[in-house]
Structure formats: structure tokens, C-alpha cells
Write a structure and sequence with these properties.
This protein is of the alpha+beta class and about 180 residues long. It has a single domain, classed as Type IV secretion system, VirB10/TraB/TrbI (Lipocalin). Helices cover about 20% and strands about 40% of the residues. The protein is built from 2 helices and 13 strands; from the N terminus they run αββββββββββαβββ. The protein has helices at about 1-25, 130-140, and strands at about 30-35, 40-45, 50, 60-65, 70, 75, 80-90, 100-110, 115-120, 120-125, 155, 160-165, 170-175. The chain starts with a helix and ends with a strand. Residues about 120-150 have low confidence and may be disordered.
Length: about 180
Amino acid sequence: MKSFLSSLLISSIVLSSSMFAVGDLPRVTYKDVVIPDGTEIAAVTTETLSSKTSVEDDPITFKVEEDVVINGEVVIAKGTGIKGVVSNAKKSGFFGRGGELNVRVESTQTIDNQKLRVRASKGKAGDNKTGTTIALVVLLGPLGLLKKGKNAEIKEGTKLKVFTDEEKTVKIAKM
């Protein structure tokens, strides 16, 4: 009987103290903010990409260059990663043919950790030296055909515009 009463007393104390602790916590409320489809996001490349070393479907990462703010609220934070892939990569070739490199962005993350689809296309072609090759063939004969074009390259820090590809409601915590 004593152990039962002791258990009951301890349970009452734990229960009552936990009730007071919960009452002391600040209340968190949430504000819904809608990110419209087509919202612009300033992004930047985080590495140099080259048609010489890249292959189709290579994963690549960009980052958000500045906070995305809607109605005074940050919905996507500066520095957030943006996932993408190499959609096309062709090395430069002979006859002055330049390389080709295209990338596709796919998704980023909102301030409340939701995945958000994005779209954009940032492609760049290497310098095409076909005119130079033709001039070299006339001057040097068949050896001029060995003139090689440049590989396409997207340098680290290259800025691009990315756009949301869906509407998303974000929950912003308010104290």
C-alpha cells in the first residue's frame, strides 16, 4: 500500500510540474505565405562546368544568391541549394566545331523545408571556329581541317534567373 501511495504521489508531482512547464512555453503561430508560380529566384553556379568533362545527367548544384521575399517574409533563404543536372554536353570537335553545354534546374527548398520545383535554362555554346577552319583549309590545305573548336564552359559564379514551376504555400513561424 505504501509503494502504491508513493507511486501515486510521484506521478501527481510529475504530472503537475509538466503542466506548469507547458504553460510557460511561448506560443508559436504560423502565417501562410503563397509563392506564386513564376516567382523569380536569383541563382549562381557553385562550380565551373565544361563540355569537356561533363556528361548528360551529371548532378550539379546552384545556390540562391539573395533571399526571396514575398509580403515582407523570407520564403527561400539566401544560400539555399538548387538541384540541377547537365541536360546536354558535347565536347568540341575538329573542323572548328565548338562544344555544347546545357543545364537544367529542377528543385530548391523553401524556408519551411518543402521541396519546390523550379525551371530555367542556361545554355552556352563554345566558340565555333568554322570560318577560321575554312580560311585555314584554303591557306594550308587539308591540315587546316585539324583546327579544333573550344569547349563550352559555364564559370563558377555565373548568375542565372530561375523561376518557380509551381505555386506553393509556405508556413512562416511567428512568436
